[in-house]
Fold these 4 entries.
Entry 1:
Amino acid sequence: MAEKKEPPRRTFIKQVGTGIVSSAVISGSLSAQGTEGEAKEDSAHEGSERLALTVNGRRHTLMVRPSETLVELLRDRLKLTGTKVVCNQGECGACTVLLDGEAVCSCHLLALDAAGREVTTVEGLLDGEELHPIQQAFVDHDGLQCGFCTPGQVIAAQGLLNLHPHPTADQIREGMAGTVCRCAAYPNIMASVLKAAEQKGGR
């Protein structure tokens, strides 16, 4: 009986990596579609305030508690679970989202501070079911290991490229310094960001 061969690592990473980068992205994106968000169940909560903001191009109006963080709003209320919570102290960067194009830690920001502003999560980078150049670069260049920090890494990379479309290696190190990869895939993350910069420049 012939011994079953293991798939090549690059093929495996492409298959699994694409799932990590996009499966939660697609499901979260679909669950958040529809009309403007109406959190009627929160309207009875004493002290709740009305919040209007735009998330991934879609306008939402919700009643939120003054203590509710942006990551709680995104994950629990809008079901955009691509944004991860790890340290919950604004130190590891897993919860990174873009706020008006700038990378911020959503666990360290009150939802009400995003009033009238535009939030982009990892789900918002997709074009239908097509991966964004940054997402694709992370898959192609093995910029992920366990994948848990990958959404934050991808969004941090987008924030970096918003500031520096053609970043140097030092600019990448500085711009990505706030996103921790416990698997230490930093060389591949660097390669992924450099490739994404090339691809975006060619579009």
Entry 2:
Amino acid sequence: MRFRVLFLAWLVVAAIAGASGAVSRLQPPYPQLVLMGLTAALVTAGATWPAFRAWNFSLSWHSIVAIHVSRFVGVYFIYLYTRGQLPYAWAVPAGIGDTLVAFLAAALLVTAAATKHPLLLLLWNALGFADIVMVVAKAALIGTRNPQSMSALTRLPLSLLPTFLVPIIIASHVLLFVQTRNVVRRVA
């Protein structure tokens, strides 16, 4: 329960930072440093804080994968591109990739196929991780070259992506890789 409260508090702080304009005032490389710092803190806490690690491992694959249904936000990226608010070079590949990952996450949840075939979960996790790494790297590259082109990601509601959701998504992929390491050993 206490970790859910901590996550809720984190969400509130991220929302306040977005609403106050604090996130939109950050210029590269600071948005990227915030995202990397939050992600590193989350992964480090999962690796070194025994109570948090135990809580993480108490989560079912269903609850971890369910987080990724939020990646249907990719449809919104494409919409913002059509309105000239995000560049094609980022919005369309990120939008398609995130939407595909979200669709596959929903399919895993609805069919529970990963329970019978854990390799499907591992493959989905690898695809989702590769996609989020590409999304973050491309956003950093484009945002560093032309910060204004990515400014939609620094205002609510999208400011919650780098300050809250993306670190959780990346950390959840790491957690699933650790949880499925036995599947990797059997395949290798």
Entry 3:
Amino acid sequence: MRVRAVVVAGALILAVLSGCSSDGDDSGDDAGADASTTTTTAAAPKDLQILVTNDDGFAAEGIDVVVEALRKLPNVKIIVSAPAEN
């Protein structure tokens, strides 16, 4: 059961990260705009907020694996919501 939880957790992390990526291609947004009159300001990047939850309790191994893997990512705020026990 623990191996399954770790595999599911890894797949979840990959799904979250692939869904949040951007290729940075903004072509076509200002097609035809005169570059000499266009100004751009970049907003500061916001932290990605991720809610991690389960129904097995906060001390379950699977939830800890997910949280520890997510903590290694930059600009990520993790919120854990789990019951005190299974």
Entry 4:
Amino acid sequence: MNNATKFAQNLKAARIKSQLTQNEFAERLGVSNSDIEQYENALKQPSFSILTKIADILCVTTDCLLGR
């Protein structure tokens, strides 16, 4: 499993654990629903600033999201 796939799986699991829909998460993050879908399907990687916002919203570390 590559790093992008690990991130995608960890992101989706953390979002679901936080009981957020993709739409709710996209709104909080300030991105489109399409961006969330692409992140969760390993089609797109977030910028560092978005990655840190993701971690803050989901109350996890960036290391957790990155599978470290």
